[in-house]
Write a structure and sequence with these properties.
406 residues; alpha+beta; Cytochrome p450; four-stranded mixed sheet; three-stranded antiparallel sheet; 8% strand; disordered N terminus; heme
């Protein structure tokens, strides 16, 4: 892969100079080694792909999908610390083929633009409550703990018909299951069992007394189509939606606000013109240099990428964040342009496995930003941007905290 075997294989993910800055290796690899051999946290090797066109090509190719337990694929992390990558959920959820497309079709009914617009007032009310409570306690405050972390779990719990009193438990379960290094396998197994037991009881209650929630709708719709979903699949779906929809969006809200406050002229631009919120959210998604490990694909046949033939059996690590900084795809890619449009970034992936919940994520990000701009126009960082700290041990990238004042 344009690297001699004698060279030491670099460890991936790479270290970055700051919480909001990209690793220097991204630009070097895009320029000189777009298909690079890297060693993952597990010790296994993978082919890292960093150019926009190449990442899009691999992710869009229907022949290749996420590695399954039957594949001899590289592991992101070892079994002691793999988090959700080693969970039972991955074996229950259909990963490819007709079953996967059917699963996406059934669940996707809940993520239409019409339904997201209907959710906006409720999400705004939640954000207003959280910001109001944060302000009442006085500043400086941690915006991640006060708003970014609780808001998405409140939204997901509401969609799943989970009582407000169980929100904190859901947040903890999500944190454990997305951790790659911070919890032991015993802690992860205990959390998975506890979460599964809760969801099993919750689904039984929804079968007995349906509500106006996603799980009740899935039960009714699949029964009506003669494709009754098992409790295991419904449980895995509920867990999957929480994990995919909570930690990723929670971290993105905090990172987005940090990006805007790190150069406060960006924040001031939005205060002066809130109509830029939608394009600003898209640009934050593109510009995110702390997005996490990327997306794995297992190649089931030889495949040429950037002039390199990757043999069947290769595990490709597609770095959407590196691809989003590709100068050949985005003019002045290293700059954050709040008016950038169009903005065909790959933050949500692309192809058959593109993030199903991206309409919800976009809605939450837009609403959180709109409410912050309205309620706290004087918001600013309480520490220098270079003192912001990345969180370690998560499959998605984030900040440990976001100290702010107003």
């Amino acid at each position: 892969m344009r690297q001699s075997d004698a060279e030491q294989v670099p460890r991936f993910p790479f270290e970055a100079p700051g919480a909001l800055e990209p690793p220097v290796e991204w630009a070097k690899l895009r320029e000189g080694c777009p298909v690079a051999k890297v060693r993952l946290a597990s010790g296994d090797e993978a082919a890292l792909i960093t150019r926009y066109a190449d990442v899009k090509s691999v992710l869009s190719d229907r022949r290749f999908t996420r590695p399954t337990p039957a594949d001899d694929a590289a592991r992101v992390a070892d079994t002691e610390s793999g988090g959700v990558f080693n969970s039972e959920m991955a074996t229950v959820m259909p990963q490819h083929g007709a079953a996967h497309l059917n699963w996406r079709r059934m669940v996707g009914k809940w993520f239409t633009a019409k339904r997201m617009n209907a959710l906006r007032p409720g999400i705004a009310a939640m954000a207003e409550q959280l910001i109001g409570e944060m302000v009442a306690k006085g500043g400086p405050a941690d915006l991640k703990a006060g708003l970014a972390f609780p808001l998405p779990v409140w939204v997901i719990c509401d969609m799943l018909g989970v009582p407000d009193s169980d929100r904190d438990r859901f947040a903890h379960w999500s944190d454990v299951m997305l951790s790659m290094t911070r919890y032991t396998q015993e802690e992860f197994d205990a959390t998975q069992a506890e979460f599964g037991e809760y969801m099993g009881a919750h689904i039984a209650a929804k079968r007995a007394e349906p509500g106006e929630d996603l799980l009740s709708a899935l039960i009714a719709d699949t029964d009506a189509e003669g494709e009754r979903w098992s409790d295991a699949l419904l449980t895995a779906t509920g867990i999957g939606l929480l994990i995919a929809g909570h930690e990723t969006t929670a971290n993105m809200i905090a990172k987005m606000v940090a990006m805007l406050l790190a150069d406060r002229t960006r924040w001031e631009q939005l205060v002066a013109d809130p109509s830029l919120v939608r394009t600003a959210v898209e640009e934050a998604l593109r510009w995110d240099a702390n997005a996490g490990v990327g997306m794995l694909r297992y190649l089931t046949e030889d495949f040429e990428v950037a002039g390199t033939v990757l043999p069947s059996g290769t595990t490709a690590m597609c770095s959407m964040a590196a691809a989003n900084r590709d100068e050949t795809a985005f003019e002045a890619a290293a700059e954050m342009d709040l008016r950038r449009s169009p903005n065909p970034h790959l933050a949500f992936g692309v192809g058959a496995h593109a993030c199903l919940g991206q309409p919800l994520a976009r809605t939450e990000l837009q609403v959180a930003l709109e409410v912050l701009l309205r309620m706290l126009p004087s918001l600013e960082l309480a520490v220098p941007a270079e003192e912001l700290r990345r969180i370690e041990g998560l499959a998605v990238g984030g900040l440990r905290e976001l100290p702010v004042r107003w």
